[in-house]
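Q: How do we represent a protein-ligand complex in a form that can be generated token by token?
A: Start from the inputs.
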Amino acid sequence: MSLALSGIGVSRGIAIGKAHFLRGSVEVLEGNLPESLLDEEVARFLEAVETARRQLESLMGRIPEDTSINISAFIETHLLMLDDATISTTPVELIRLHGCNAEWALKLQRDEIVNVFEEMDDPYLRTRRDDVDHVINRILRILLGRGEENGGSDSKELQHAIVLADDLTPAETVLLEHQGIAAFATEYGGPLSHTAILSRSMEIPAVVGVHGVQHYLRDGETIILDGLQGILIASPDENTLTHYRARQQAEQQRRLDLARLSLKPAVSLDEVPVNLMANIELPEDINTDGLASAAGVGLYRTEFLFMNRATPPDEEEQFDCYKGVIEALKGKPLTIRTLDMGADKQVDSGSSRSGSNPALGLRAIRLCLKDMSLFRPQLRAILRASAFGPVHMMVPMLSNTQELQQLLALVDETRNTLQREGQAFSPDIRIGGMIEVPAAALSAADFAARLDFLSIGTNDLIQYTLAIDRVDDEVNYLYDPLHPAVLRLIKMTIDAGRDAGIPVAMCGEMAGDPRYTRLLLGMGLCEFSMHHTSLQEVKRVINNSNIGKLRPLVEELLGNTKAGQIHARIESLNSNLTE
Ligand code: PEP
Ligand code: MG
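Then emit the structure tokens for the protein with phosphoenolpyruvate bound:
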């Protein structure tokens, strides 16, 4: 009888193959030790940390040469974590304090660190939590005598296998890909972990967070993995196999079509060019292959530069970093968003304070205007970097025009100071604002009159319009980009930009979802910025759409559709307009 398990699909694709268990989960038991054995236990722990270091260094030497992804950066992160006192020293203190075994001390410390991460809520920091888990599990396996990188499996066994594991480190994922695995599924992990990101870059179908994957499946049995739906099917019957083989073929065709598209421009059937841009978070994102087909960067989230550190980066560090990204873009524009700190993006450094309702509190431009010691160095760094290539400055979370005036005055003042100091900067830097607050969308015309461009941040616009905290699982079901109120605010913003003669972009998640591309084109959106993995999908829709024909359809849809019908209307918009 077949059995289906579900998890989070993080990398699309269908794989059919034999299950291959990499290793079991790491279970730790508490052991009490007499005082006389504690020195020995501490030495055993420190030796395990050293072994982990040697393993990582040897892994670094084994990175396949044709790996396009910067895997050494992941391994270096893990090496740095091994040096951190919270991982290499605190467990020693815990062994002595509780008189316990090294495994237990390490487990106590992991629980402590994980609790800190749990409180942060920020999905990006969750990736760091996964890194901590990977490093600690590596040491635990060594302590438990299960230290082999691939669980002792040889390459032959791994070829075409669907690997099942408790979790995989990014480094393991790269090695496994090199050994020819067909797909993988893990018990733990989330969609934003480095492992998940890698699986997408390497196009290995993957499902994470499959509870019970190690319990319900057997080594060697045939399974189907669907990385889009996030399902695993064990012991499938013939009908199910036939269905998934057909889907597998369709998926292969889809990939071929998308690969062919990457060199083509984004132009609609009625020859309207559309600007497709990429969102980046870290300077190294710029090296990703997939970014090559973007027309530039429509959102650079600079707050990631401020995370995981005790003090904020100074002007010079920011300048070097922005300049590096500009140079790597070789003439394509870079949209640098000023610091969007606070609420779901807490950082260790800086002066972010939450208040009792952080999403409505001192965040983004509000915080920057209040804390000049944080903001001035960034403004100076952005302006100075603009001397090295086309830069647009984008301001998050504007809610009234006084903030905007304050900002523009500050930019002028900074320009004057730089000029007096003889520092170079471009006189042409364009200044834009993000429309993320309903009040800003409702008064978009006032913003458009003073700015060079607008960019709609739908992640926040939806959260604030529908009064749902974007990181609260309990109200996630209400998060709806197609809510008529959201659509009206988006339309008002696009119209305000058009009337003022300035471009309007969208850089929230909605821009990268191909289900909404035609709707947005029909509303008049001319620039989409998204994670690079969505670029070709969105381009395919653009290249198969006639914007002139979409306009009246979308206008009619927005004017006459009742809330409950919009989803169905969008489906028909997507299905029947290919010429
Ligand atoms: C948004 O709010 O849509 C956006 C792009 O910004 P962030 O997700 O970084 O808040
Ligand atoms: Mg936002």
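Residues 261 and 536 are 7 Å apart (CA to CA). The chain has a mean pLDDT of 87.
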